[in-house]
Amino acid sequence: MLKAATLKITLAEATADARTLLFHLRQADFVMPISEQEIAGNVISGKIRHFSNYLGGTPSDSEASQQASQAAGQSSGSSDWQSTLDDIGGMMEWGEWFNSQGMEDEAQDSFNQAEQGLREAIECFLDPSCRVVPIDICDDDYVREALAYLAQAQLLGFDEESELMQDLNTAVTHLLNECTNRFAIEYDYLQSVDYGSFSEDIHVTGQVLFSLPVYVVSDIEPLQATGEGTVSGTITGTAEDCTITGSFTVNVVVEGELDADEMGQPWLNLRLNESWYASGQQTFVCPDESTDVPLIPAQSIQNVRLLMQDGYIMQQPHLQTEGYYRWTLHVLHLW
After folding, report:
1. Which of 185, 193, 158, 184 is nearest to 333 (CA)?
2. pTM > 0.70
3. Rounded CA gap, 306 and 53, in Å?
4. N or C terminus of the chain with fewer C-beta within 10 Å?
5. With contact defined as beta carbons under 8 Å apart, do 167 and 315 qualify?
6. What is the DSSP letter of 250?
């Protein structure tokens, strides 16, 4: 599930006993309490993250101790983060249940097991050799996993000054800055030269991702755009009896900031720092020979102002030759 669902059981008669719990039936002889359980009159509820077999019951002290011990042994083998949090939530529920029955030692054991399980899960998440980082770190499941671990660690009272929590906070902040207010600027440049027996078209296409980080500035400063990427170009043309072909790349660094016009509409004022011909060459193919000609690197800067609206297009004519510069804004994610 994308978010935890609430499972509610309404008893036909009377009220729920204080010893009553809702369980996820893991095996024929093994159950785990579901998380965040509450009893209100004849209604008992809790949180679930998947549809499985659930049941309710009022365990005896010995049954509870046996099941909690078994849970502590099995929770470390969870195969995914949602199962891990289910196990940790179950251990916390056992701890609360033991406390309600005056079984303080058993309660503390359950709380310790829950804390240790969460600590190990966070350490694995932060270790690339343990948790494979997706190619797209903004994968929804990966971001939810990071946020869920942070929320659970804060709920369990982990020391915010500890190295583990500082590393987790750094990772979450990085994810939020990379994955919120995400945009892509689509390039479409055409430069056409036609002079006597020489003609050439240079066409640049591609997208560059950038974002407006929201967790590194104060409330009174405008959000700053940051990003970089590479777009591709092609060259086609003729020179007397020769044909011209080529390809190259342009490295782009995006800077700028967000502001608003007098009507309150948001605009992106961007500075595109372009490094032309970072790689590539052009080839002249003539009747008698072929020649590769290197492309000389060059720098250029484009200042563009784009309405923060998906699909917004800005186009300018090429000032020195025929052609145009065209930029299209794609809004990938706003938060």
Report:
1. 184
2. no
3. 52
4. C
5. no
6. E
